[in-house]
Amino acid sequence: MLVSLNRLLRKFKLSKTNSISIIETNWSEQSDNILRIRDKVFIQEQAVPRHIEVDGKDSECIHFLIFIESIPIGTARIKMDGKIERVSILKNHRKKGLGYQLMKFIINNAKEKGLERIYLHSQMDSIEFYKSLKFTKRGETFQEANIDHVLMVLENE
Length: 157
Fold this sequence. Notes:
Elements: H1 5-12, E1 20-25, H2 27-45, H3 50-53, E2 62-68, E3 71-78, E4 83-89, H4 98-112, E5 119-123, H5 127-131, E6 135-144, E7 147-154
Parallel strand pairs: 4-5
Antiparallel strand pairs: 1-2, 2-3, 3-4, 5-7, 6-7
């Protein structure tokens, strides 16, 4: 079930004057914005080592950015095998429905491109968020970048 933008605005107290936009992009066009967000979220907040975060695979992925007005506040990427990675929203913009909007955009984009399997590795504190998007947990907990994760797969709708 898609949630209307107005309902999200009311629920999360975003101003209707805030213009929210999401774009599909690539690494060469937006690497500065993407890295700025991922550096703050993964390297600074979560202490992920830079050599793990910057893995050399960005040029092979489709990237997404979410903006409020013209300011980038979140990003994610998807590999051509359908794996969504590096989902990140700046701290002061979380819990406002923006990550949900970003993920719905990515899922719709992946389906339009004909990707049959959409999956991700969720950190433990994000499991319920991904469940709200119809992902289901598969398998046991494992470590990535010294953080517990679990495989989650999008169920066919």
